[in-house]
Each structure stands twice: as C-alpha cells, then as structure tokens.
Amino acid sequence: MKRKKNIQLYIGLGILAVLGVFLVLGLIYHPYTSTQMDAGAKLTAPTLKHWFGGDKMGRDIFTRVQEGLKTSLFISFLATAIGTVGGTIIGALSGYYGKLLDDSIMRIIDVLFAIPSILLALVFVSLSGSSMMNVILALGIAVIPSFAKMIRTEFKEQSKLEYVQAAKLMGASDLRILFVHILPNIMPTLLNCVFISINNCILAEAGLSYLGIGVQPPTASLGGMIAEGQGYLRMAPFYVIFPGVIMVFLLVGLGLISDGNAQTFVVRRSAKKDTK
Amino acid sequence: MKKKMCRVTAVFLTVLSLAVALCGCTGDKKGKSDTSITIGIPQDIEETLDPHNMVAAGTKEIFFNVFEGLVKPDSDGNIVPAVASEINVSDDGLTYTFTIREGVKFHDGTNVTAEDVQYSMNKCADIEGGEPMIPALSNVSAVNIVDDSHVDIVLKEADNDFLANIATVSAAIIPKHNEDPAANAIGTGPYKYVSRSPLENVVFEINNDYWGEKAEITNVTWKICANADTIAMELEGGSIDMMAHLTSAHKAQISTENFEVLSGTMNLVQALYLNHKFEPFANEDVRKAMCYAVDKDAILGFVSDGEGVKIGSSMYPNFKKYYDQGLADAYPHDTEKAKELLKKAGYENGFSFDITVPSNYVQHVDTATVIKEQLAEVGITANIKQVDWDTWLSDTYVGRNYDATVIGVDAAQLTASALLARFVSDAGNNFTNYNSSAYDKLYKETFALTDDAARTEGFKKCVQMLSDDAANVYIQDLPEFVAINRKYTGYTFYPVYVIDVAKIKLAK
Fold first, then answer.
1. What is the tens place of the pLDDT at every residue in A236-270?
2. Among B270, B370, B252, which residue's Cα sits nearest to residue A39?
3. Using the beta-carbon criterion (under 8 Å), do B1 and A259 form an inter-chain contact?
4. Domains in chain B, ordered, with CATH?
5. How close B232 gets to chain A, by Cα (Å)?
6. E strand intervals along A64-204
C-alpha cells in the first residue's frame, strides 16, 4: 500500500531528473549562446545543428529553452522563498497569538485574497517597471496571502496541542515555541504549499512574460517564447511546442511530487494513529 | 492512485484534443455573389459615424470610401479635386475659392449645395470655438458662400499645406439636413454605409450615383478579425477575401496559390529615437557612433525578412517629393569607426542606457533586441524596457522621460511639416528634444516660402540636416503586406492610411 502511493513521487522526481539532465546537457554542449543571432537559421526546423530548430531571429531554440527553464525556475524559487518567509511569519503570529492580531491580519489577507494574485503582480510590475527583480518581488508578495492563510490554520491547531502547552510551562520563549517546536511539525503542509506556490509562480511568470511585462528580451523565458512563437504556429510549430512541452513537464513533475509528498504524509499520520 | 493517473491522462487528452480542434479551425466557405468582397480589419470602428469626430486611423481608413472632402489624396500622394471641381487661390494665399462639382449627390439622393459645404467646413473647423480635429484648421477665419456653386475659405495667414490638410475624411462634406451625423453616415463617396454589428462587421454597398468612376465591387463587408494569429487561417478558409496591414510572419503562412500577396510599406519612420537630453546622446559623435554601430541590413533581415526599405532620415520612401534614398547609406555599418568616434567622445569604455519599447508592437521590440546585440559589439550596453502603450504615450512621448525608444513615426497629413515640424526645438511634439538652431532657422524659413520648388528644396535640406546631425538612428520603413484572393485584382497602395475599395476589380 505504502509503496504504491509513492509512485507519484517517483514519477515526479523522474520527470524533474529528465529536466535536470536537459539543463546539465547545456553545460556540456553549448555551441551557441542564447542571444546569438544567425540569419541563416531563421525559423528553421529542428536539425542536428539546431536540435529544437531556430527562432524568428535565428537563435537556437534548444539553448533558449534551457535558458528559459533556468529563468522560470530562478524566478519561481526566489518568489516562493519570499512568499514562504513572509507568509510563515505572518501566519505564525496570526495563528499563535490569535484574538485581535489574528482578526486584523486575516481581514487584510482576505482583502488581498479578493484580488487574483496574477492581477496583484500585474499592478505591481506596471507601477514599478518590468525587470526580473520586480517580477520576483511581485510574485513573492502575491503568494504571501495564500501562505499566511494555510500556515495560520496549522499554527492555530498546533498551539492547542499538549507539547506546546508543555513547552510554555517549561518557560520556553514564544519565538522558540513558534519556530523550534511548532514549525517542524507543520513541515509537510509547508512543503506542499511550497510546491504549489512554485507551480503557481512558474505559471504566473509565464503569464507576465506572455503579456510582455515579465522578463525583458533578449532574456529567454518559457512564457515569453510561447508568446513569441504563437504567430508562427502554422509554419514553425516547434517554436511553441518545445518550450510548451518543457513547461508542461515541469508543472506535471512538480505537481506529482507535491501530491506524492502529501500521500506520504497522510500515510505517516495514519500510521502514527494506528500505533496509538 | 488510479484516479490520479486518470487525471493526468485526462489533462494530456485535453491538450491533445485542443490541438486537434485548433487544426480543424477553418472558416466556412459560403457561396457569395460574385461582385462582393469581405475584407478583414483588425479592430472595430468607432462609436461615432460623424467623420469630423473620428479619431482612430482604422475607422478613417475604411470611411475613406464613404466620405470625401473638397479635395482628396490620390495614390501618388497628390491632392486632387473631389467635391470641388476647381480651386482658385488668391495672390496673397489667404482666400481659397472652391467651385462645387456639378452633379455631386449625397447618399440620400440630395445634391451637394454651397450651404452643405459651408456647414461642413464650419463644423470641422469649429469656428465657434473649441479645438478642431485638424489643428491646421484653427487657421480658418471664415467660410463664405459666394453663390450657389462657389464657396470661399478665408485663412488668417497663408498656409501652403492648407489643401493637404483638408484632403482627409476629417474634413468631409456632409449634408446640413442630417440631424444626427453621429448615427447616420451620409457622404458623397463611391460607397454607402449600410449597417454595422458591433465587434462583428461593417457593411457598405455601392453608390450608383457616384460622380466619378464607379466602383466594380457592389457589396463590401468589413469583418473584424481581432486575433492576429488566426488571420492566415481566416484567409485560407475563405471567411475573408482580403486583409491589409499584414506582417512578414503572416505573409509566410499564406499560400500564394490562392492569394496575391502585395508588398508595400507602412509609411512610417522607424528609428531608434534618441533623447538628446540624455547625457551621451547630446554628443554628436556618440550619435554618429551609434549610427555606424547599427547594421540596418541585418535588422531588415531579422525583423522584416529583408522586405522593408532602409531609410536615413525622417522621411519615408513613398513621400517621393522629399525622399532621398542616398541618405539611407550615410552611415554604413562599421564597428571600427563607431569605436573610434566613441573614443573621441570620451566613451571608450562604452555606456549603458535603456531602450523603452511599447510591448504591443512586436516589430519594434524585435528591432530593439537586434540593436541591443549590435551595440554590444562596440561596448554600449542597451537594456530593453518594455512598457504598455498608454505608459509609452504618457511617459515617453509626452513626458519625454526616456533614454532611447524604438518607434515608428507617421505623418498625420500628407505634408512635409507633419514629419519635420517635430524637430524644431520648441515644438510641442519634439519628443526627442532635438535642439539645433540651424535646423530651427532652416525649417521656419522654408515653411514661410510660397514657391513650391523652393519649399521642396528647403524641406529636402531639413531632411539632409537630420541625417548629417545623426539626430536619431534611422532604420527603416517597415514592410506591410496585403493579401487578396486571386478572384480580385487592382488593389492600390496609398501614401496615407486608407483602403480604396473602388480601385479593386474582379479578376477576369
């Protein structure tokens, strides 16, 4: 039973491993740079020279997809890091202390929740100008509310448990209780949030780049490449297909891992219950 | 577990079926009467049908077939009589006497009278006050009826471009008895307005009482094709017969078997416009170095598939009167020379600047991308900053808060001033902050001249001066393509933004 449940995790890890190999390949085999233009390779179909073909400026799509993948990962990891730190702190304070603090923070979060996070990011980028740093900040801020909400519930639940009461009686400081005692116990939930958030950030970054306000050219990003290539769908389908396939792999891979992770957690919890 | 796998499979199947469905997207091949045509337009027309209040180029472009002014432009860029048959200008250049052409009828069957002309000119010049749609019309002091077939227009000061300024839909002659011009489009052109379905189509039919050469196509449907990526499919599928303003990416996707693809240019000056207030660009040597560093041929190859026309100053090729192709090669691609000039200017280690580009114009973003690579070769770092169109208009164009920008500048009227006036140092639309007292003097002197030959000569010198000064890094007049079903023939390009359906004939 337990092994079967983990298949998702393994498939997910397998897909990510393939993507990892794809990235490593770029370190070994890199005859082109991602911005090197070649009039002769303009919109050429995949060949041995250009494995994924050439884009509208004769740049190597293989190299650009690698760079795009790196960009997407870089942005979504950093944005998620901002969201995790911000969301956890807010959620922890709100969940642990409760009362007025909880109420006021949660109402603000509710208001932010009413605005779709992509719209929030869009407004932020429009106001502050589009650069990679701003995109990261915008996405990071946009995912804070959902983190805070999830983490708060966990903290609220945990703070009523015996071990927390015990720690309190032993005179542990609030900070210690929050981050040394409770935090490790909510790791599974936190990890799930992180994976979901990475997924969302990849999609949101692609959306922003697709709209032209994400990563600025000539830096490649998966969403930007799909936006560029859609006009050539009939004559050069490979232009959209390769970044699209890589993005689907990435999302499915991460999705499976987070699902698999959740399953393991459920198994562990129920196993614990059984031993009681 | 099984459920999860099902879900994954379902996602893949959805993607697959979507792809298949998209491939199957073709328009309906409905049988049409032989003398009709369906033309695709990229956006819906404006709410108002009053020609004097139309703002969008895309609206005026098609209403060129419905409305006519006293004069109109022809496909060579000349101003020819339309509702007026004869124009006499007084010696002081202040009074224009128009003879109303005999037998010109409005689409409702009434004759065009002197009252209608007076009403129309007063309405679009808005003599009672307010800002006229055509800025040059603020120069009109009076419109007087001389007799039943003659109207005088009196100017405050002589303006040699006056006729060019009123040769547009914005100065159309419309009937005085039309109480609601915004709802009823009544003009004198070769086509009558029939109906519209918002976001779907606009329908015109032939005006059999037209005073000039009658059109051959009887019914015109303007179909709104908002999605640029499906245009090739709409053409191939037969839901539209013709589409103008196509890019080279579209062109490559249209089969030449069924469609004739005509190439023209967009009639605009695409350049890397430099803000002369930005420190390095105030230096002439830096600007020249930039011109040498940029390889226009390579840009044309990457962005326009080699189809655009290289330019070297603020004048586009279809404006033959003032255009000089020789200027296009004034700064041949030469990285060594560029580096030398940079050294001379004290920037041997290069410098860094932002290129602001409106993100909705793919050609301009692509051009900026190529320029970035080319400038990197001489040590100049360009960062591309995409902004949305409204931000570009307010911050870059009006606010002049930018280092450099790639954009295409067009001519609002068919006059040299429309392109050249913006480089006078105190001009309101001088968004590059170009500041040259020699240019100011030359332009103002030329503008005041009345002799056409001397004026042309003077404006040509202005064009030359912009090139000599390397005012901006001029690149190209972008190519545009018109795809037309081989059932039709005779599409004609104009140096202004119009589609003249009356010129389209059926292929024999």
1. 889 899 999 999 999 899 888 888 877 776 655 55
2. B370
3. no
4. 36-53+62-66+189-266+483-506 (3.40.190.10), 71-171 (3.90.76.10), 268-477 (3.10.105.10)
5. 9
6. none
